[in-house]
Amino acid sequence: YPTWKRTLTRRAREAQMNRFCKAQTIQRRLEEIEVTFRELEQQGIKLEKLLRDEDGTPADQKTQWMNQLLYLVQKKNSLMTEESDLMIAVQELKLEEQQWQLDQKLRCYLSRDESLKTPEDRVAEQEILAQLVDVVNKRNVLIHIQEEKRLSEL
């Protein structure tokens, strides 16, 4: 087994493990965000009840509750933004994995001698190439979405 093939195989495994670790990290963070959402909802419900039920409370207390409610809304909005960023990252990881798999299949077909390829092999090679281009275009769209979000936030 040539050294370059072992190196490529090792690098492919490392890249796959990196994608897997990123996916796990993203999944954990999404779960944390879900828990935080529930906590914020409960706090918001309590504050709304306080604001509606307490007619005889001082204006300072109502202002404080209103400020707390606005803070919760801001925090929830920032978590929603983070969640959407993470969902884009998940899609990007899926597309990376898909691209890697298609790339491996395509390399297999391309490494064959042209004289040994059957017409079915050539058709399969073209289909894989078309799928690979489609995946690359989808990744490009995700990158544009992220860039637009970044620019709109600025």
From TrEMBL:
It comes from the Eukaryota. Residues 23-50 form a coiled coil. Keywords: Coiled coil, Membrane, Monooxygenase, Oxidoreductase. Residues 13-154 form the BMERB domain. The keyword Transferase does not apply. One of its GO terms (molecular function) is monooxygenase activity. It is found in: Membrane. InterPro entries: bMERB_dom (IPR022735), F-actin_Monoox_Mical (IPR050540). The keyword Amino-acid biosynthesis does not apply. Signal peptide: none annotated. This is MICA1 monooxygenase. The lineage of its organism: Eukaryota, Metazoa, Chordata, Craniata, Vertebrata.
